[in-house]
Amino acid sequence: MRDVTAETLTKTFLDYCGPETSPRLRFLLEQLAGHLHAFVMDTGLTHAEWRKAIEILTKAGEITDDERNEFVLLSDVLGVSSLVDMVNTKAEATSSSVLGPFHILGAPDLAYGGDLKRDNDGATLVVKGVVRDTEGNPVSGAAIELWQTADNGLYSNLDPKQDRYNLRARLTSVENGEYGLTTIRPAPYTVPDDGPVGELLHATGRHPWRPSHLHFIITAPGYHSLVTEVFPSDDPYLDEDAVFGVRGDLIMEYVERTDPGFVPEEYEARDKLTNPYYSVDFDFVLAVDDGA
Ligand code: BEZ
Ligand code: FE
Asked: Residue 30 sits in which domain range?
C-alpha cells in the first residue's frame, strides 16, 4: 500500500500481519492499533505531546531494574492493572486486586494460629477466616501467601532494617477451610513517586498514597488462583487509592478487643497479647477452575 491515509492506516497495519499471526494476536493488535490510531486522531496529538510521551517511556526504561518496574507502576496508576483484574475476576468469587511490585517468592510456612508479629511494632491484629468455594463449601489445604507493610509503611524488601521475610508467610487452610494468624495492622504507604510516573501524578495533582492493606495469593488444586488485597474500612485513603485496587467485597472491619478469650488456644501469641488488640474476620471465595 503506497497511498496510506489516516483513514486506511489501521487496515493497512493489519494487512501487514502475515498468516503466522494467531487469531487472538490478530484480534488484540487490531483493537490496540485501532484504539491508538483513534486516540491520535481524536486528540489531534501534537509532535511535542508525542515526544513527551516517548520521553516518559524512555525514563521508565532507564529507572526500571530487578527491584523496580516503572512500566508496571504506569499501568497501575493509569488503572490498566485494575481493569485487567476486574475483567478476569470470576463470577461469585472474591475480587482480584493488584499484585503490586513487592511480592517475593519463598516466604516461610506459618502454622495455623502462628504469630507473624514477633517483635514488630504496631497494633496486634488477629486475622482469621475461611476459604470457601462459590457453593459455600470449605476449601481445606489451600496455600495462602500473605505479605504486608511494617508499622513504618515499608515492605521488608525496601527496608534494610527488616529481615527479608519479615511480615510474609505461607499459611495453609485447615480441615474446615479456616486460616488464622496474628500480625500487626498494616500501614498506608505511597507508591514510588520519584520517577516519571511520579512526574505524571504531580502534573495532575494526584497523591501517591495507597490505603493500608494485606496482600494475599490463594491457590488450591482445582480452583482459579486468587491474587488480591484486603483493606480496613477506616483507612483514610480507601476512596482515593492511587492504583484503584479497592473493591466493595475487599473491605475488612477491625474490631477492637480486650478479651483474650476471643483468641483460640492454639494461637501461638495468645498469652502475649497486649490490650487493646484488633481482630478481623475475612472469608475468601475461590472459583472452580473449569479451564475457562
Ligand atoms: C502495592 O500494593 O504494594 C503496590 C501496588 C501498586 C503499585 C505500588 C505498590
Ligand atoms: Fe501493597
From this structure: 1-45
